[in-house]
Design a protein that fits this description.
By secondary structure, this protein is mainly alpha-helical. The chain has helices spanning 14-45, 51-79.
Length: 81
Amino acid sequence: MNATAVALGLKANWKQFSLLVLINAFVGGMVGIERTVVPLIGAEEFGVASSTLIVSFIVSFGVVKACANLVSGQLADTWGR
């Protein structure tokens, strides 16, 4: 088995780091859009006027995302990352 040297640092891994920054920017942008657009959709399309009901759209997204992260984490621990 050939062992390859691991290169540490940003200079050696700038491509991977740039990809990570880009993906995080896209995810952050989508979360920001979701937090502003989903309540508007709830108000206009479904006639929801209560702020509590509008926030429930965001809360339901968070709960589903947390459950999905829990399951994917357990699968990653089982099968390897």
